[in-house]
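Appendix B, record 7
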Amino acid sequence: MQEFFKEMLEKQYGKETMEKILEGFCKERKVTFRVNVLKTTVENIENRLNSEKIKFQKVAWSKECFILDNARENEIKNLDIYENGEIYLQSLSSMLPPIILGPEEGADILDMTAAPGGKTTQMAAISKNKSHITACEMNNIRIEKLKYNVEKQGASCVYIMQKDSRQIDDFFSFDQILLDAPCSGSGTLNINDKNIDKYFTSKLIEKTEKSQYALLKKAIKILKKGHDMVYSTCSILSQENEGIILKVMKEFNLEIIPIDFIGMEEIPLLPTKLNGTLCVCPNNLYEGFFIAKIRKI
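Structure tokens (predicted):
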């Protein structure tokens, strides 16, 4: 792992926690998925896994989430339940932002950086396809993946818009917004990747900070007053997380809604500099991830 990153982690968390984080990067993560309740039930998937002799665990915070003990990703992709869109391969950490947002039936919801569609289709499932989700993506290749997953998952309440979310007109307004912001990926690094120096750099962190700030400012502008949004990243660096939020809070009247849900105690957490926010520590089950719930006053 690069020295500059280790120095940043030690400065933010202290040496002991830094070593815990680096140890988490070294562990092989188990395969996880969520059940797509728009197409099937949890019971049906449990029966299917049992028939395939695939052992699994569940999490306390969602009955739709599964952890596999004795199966690899390519084996799951060969099953009909994957081909039919009855399950969606997704990391546990990335399942948390939609759950924390709590998409409501009838709500106008914006997913600002939607591709490849894991969180988008999860929000459609939580709201039983009865919300109105606008999914933004500006990249031509990524938007095709988004369209594919939305169709495969049966997320009929999703409208896909090819646009840079930073350029959305301010006359739009939304009841709920999910901003899973582009980031350095500091919480999901592969410590065995020999090419890590080519894509994970201090310049990348500086670049993502600028886009995160612009995206969050836009989100606040088009969020209805008195309503909530979720800001998340797969980074564990405070300058991409709490730092961005605090910067925007100086310009808008906002409050942090403390994150609290059943089963949260089993998630490995890192300390944060902003009370009520959540930062997940990477280990064999979870990726490093940051989540904040923000209300526009």
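Remarks on this record: The mean pLDDT is 96. The domain at 30-90 is CATH 3.30.70.1170 (Alpha-Beta Plaits).
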